[in-house]
Amino acid sequence: MSAPHEPTAWALRAGAGDAFFTAEMRRGLVGLGWRRIGDLGEVSGEKEIRAVVDRVYPDQSPRTRKATAVQLRAFRDLVRPGDVIALHRE
Predict the structure, then answer these.
(1) Taking the domains of the chain in order of start, what are their residue ranges?
(2) Which of 19, 65, 71, 79 is most buried, by the most CB atoms less than 10 A from its CB?
(3) How far apart are CA 75 and CA 42, in angstroms?
(4) Taken in order 79, 10, 86, 52, is the CA torsion positive or negative?
(5) What's this model's pTM, rounded to 2 decimal places?
(6) Over the chain, what HEC string results?
(7) Rounded CA separation 77/48 (Å)
């Protein structure tokens, strides 16, 4: 039996004009806005996530693509059910 999960607090932005404040968030669910990325369930780490981001968003700067990969990996690997999400809305 595993130890109980100690909730962690995370901060997300809702995007310009609250673009990502959806009905799902009102129901207590949260997701990220990189829909073109697809399912990362079979991707094994930050390098591999970065390769997907580089392929899908070649027009973004290397700095932006790196930040996107870091955020996606953190969300996928670190955020757990029961964590608290603070959503910054404009």
Answers:
(1) 9-88
(2) 65
(3) 15
(4) negative
(5) 0.72
(6) CCCCCCCCEEEEECCHHHCCCCHHHHCCCCCCCCHHHCCCCCCCCHHHHHHHHHHHCCCCCHHHHHHHHHHHHHHHHCCCCCCEEEEECC
(7) 13
> In this structure, which amino acid lies at residue 85?
I
Q: How far apart are the first and last CA of the chain?
A: 42
The b-or-e profile of 36-75 (16+ CB within 10 A means b, else e) is ebeebeebeebeebbebbeebbeeeeeeebeebbeebbeb
Tokens of residue 25, six digits? 């968030």
Token readout for 57 is 């968003």
